[in-house]
What does this fold into?
Amino acid sequence: MSAPNGHAGNSSASKPNGKGIVPTAVNNELAPHVTGENLTRFIVELQVPFEPSLIEWRVTNTAGDKARGQVIPYADQRAYTDRLNDLFTPAGWTRKYMVHTSPNFQRGKDQKTVAKILVTCELTIFGVGSHSATGEEWSDDENAGTSAEAQAFKRAASCFGLGRYLYYFRGIWVDLDSRKRAKKVPPLPQWATPEGWRRGLRPDNKPQAIREAAEDQGAEANTKQSIDVSLVRQIEAMAHPLGRSLYRGILKSVARVWRPSEIQDLITAKRVLEHMQAGNRGLDRLKVVLERVEPGHVQQVLSSLNISSLERVDNLDTLKKLVLSLEAIQTN
It folds into this structure.
């Protein structure tokens, strides 16, 4: 848990309330008074994009030869805290964290058994309200706690509109160097700058704006391998037969995206669909064998795979092991 603005508090200016550290009236006197009249102004200012100098770019996906990759913009959490401090002062907002660790389970990407660090951040702006969000990271990452904390904080801030505009970006294909870094990052569209935003520009035309930005850097918008809308629809149609865990697991492990619409190249989209179709076939086999195996045996197999229930199967390898194990029991 944290003191106001995530820093150590002065005992004379703050006190525990059983749910974390919150400012007392002494600190609140330093915060701006939020009223119905100026609430709209604060909300509007929270939504304004960060200065371009604060924006960095992260590679989220690479092509087969690793020479090209998709990049998306992001801002360090210090940019978020600075905006909150500027608008509300350090005494005008606070946040608190709750940290949990999941049981160990087999990761689909490399089949390694590992846990996840789960962090919940509750962000409160006095006079405005509170929002909470979660972040997660694999526990074998040496910066797992820091990464999950930052993710949770940013997601909570986006509920107030802060940094929300960054969610409109899709991956932009660029050339990568030998260290898998972008050789040249794309320029930001005008709606993603403070000046453009205040002029009324919005990402309603974001696909065109992002495509033009990519073309300016020689990315060519990947037109030779554009994805047919029907292919995206086929992938989306697999959500119901696969179930939430397996559907999301395949999207994350194969394409590193949350939604099929975020997949940017044809090869990856086809691989996702192939994996999902294979998963559907595996579930059909699982359905058959479940009718012939005692529930007690099913639970034993699940326990041996470190899975709490059938609904927690989130990758093809685990599904395969589950089906083969149950089929072996059926045969015996």
Summary: The longest helix spans residues 266-290.
